Task: structure prediction
Amino acid sequence: MLPNRGVMLDVSRGKVPTLETLFRLVENLAAYKYNHVQLYIEHPFHFPSHPEIGAGSDPLTADDILALDAHCRAHHVELVPNLQSFGHLRRLLSLPRYAHLDEVGWQWSLTPAREETYQLLDELYADFLPNFTSSWLNVDCDETWDLGTGQSRALAERLGKGRLYLQHILRVRDLAAKYGRRIMVWADILLHFPDLVAELPDDIVLLDWWYEAQDHYPSAALLGSLGRTFWVCPGTSSWNTLFPRIENAIGNIRTFVRDGLAAGASGMLLTDWGDYGHYQLLSLSWYPYLFGAAVAWSGPDIQLDHFDRAFALLFLDRPADDASVRAIHRLGRAVTLPSLGLPNRSNSALALFDEPLAGRLIERTDPHDLEELAEAARAALRAWVALPDAQLRHDYTFTARLVVFAAEKLLASQRLRRLLGSLPDPADENGRSRGLTQLDEAIATLEAQRTLLEPLAREFEQRWLAHARRSEIHQTLDRFTALGQRYQAAIAWLREQRQRYASGQPVDATLATYSPGPYHPLWEEGVQKLLELVRLAGPDSLPAQLRESLEREGLLGGAG
Result:
């Protein structure tokens, strides 16, 4: 058994839960033997000294935290403050008041080259920390890819990037100590500099995160061999996908906890992120949450079939062998089929917002995978309509219908692209007649799909507001709107092609005359941000895995 069993919920990617939702979350987590909760905060807190940081995000307030902290204590759960204190600060650094603290102009990391950075953190801690009774603070400080590339370049050249990073950690440790807190830090950067880990004070807890299922996690053994206090931090695999990558979550949690226990880890912090607008519903994370609780409490050898029976009986209030749990597994596998599954994501989500005519996935996705995805979602819909809890039932069935739409949308795009390349010769009158009928059917399909977007967006909004404040829901609603505009453009272009074809001219099968515009949904937008960092700081600023991914896509040619 791990003595510390926690969940960290991201509230910084556009979705701040209501206080009622957070209360219920704590109650349920406590019932299943969790004793630690964190809310990941980059900006959505109302800092009295810096109110502009949280403005527009429906931020949590001091009163919210005080109430939640009391509720946690009443349920024997420790609410640990979590405040990003180095990288991932795009919102803060986009504000003119703080622009001078931006390391390289990428609006990501605070520069350690200015004393004002530490003055700012001190003021934020003064506003934030007194609302918690916990003696801990998670300062995060992960993925500081731009460190040493701008204002702190000279420091990095003199000290080395690793020691420069360590210097910052020691500064924030001192600031936290001023408020009676010990710190936790994500371990990803320090793992690149194991010789420096020995210089960390013993009172710092290292949080070792990995989110892909692996046979082994060598970092756990390394941290254990260095005598460090550390926790393992797997993930729910709920983000960057329309439905959680359940099998990945199971493997990630089970094996990481196993390796952590063997290496002397003292806790597990199960992370639940919300990349690109936090469009996934909180209800979808309960299977990974409870599997994590079972593994952290009972050990990594728990039998999955026993867990599934208990999950059906105790959480879903369904018979032990109910189809609802089988549907969770089938859909969780379907979103990771070979042409859909990727590290840290599933193309099921991109399929929803991919451009209808020129989308990247149209030629990259196996239609058989899409057919299985759609059928898995239909089977799930049939099973989940019987869930007795109204909130779970609405959330799960809406998600299933969203997956069906995404799969059918991409299948229709594939059929349309094949049609454009295989229409009969327009000079042949009989063939042209058949081709016009096929084009009319394709246009009608796109029009039908476009008409479904508005009700889907409305229901998305309803399900969001069942759990969360409005926050920054516009991020996803704007994507629905932009997709509707792309449908309109695609339909207009197809009608022009139909006119050409009807007059005996060939259609533009290569889409040379079709312009998708600057349309970059979800992580395609993230790719553009990474390329911006490459332009500012060079490709070596990226982690090797990201750099290799961009190289495979042919996006780093000539960058340097």
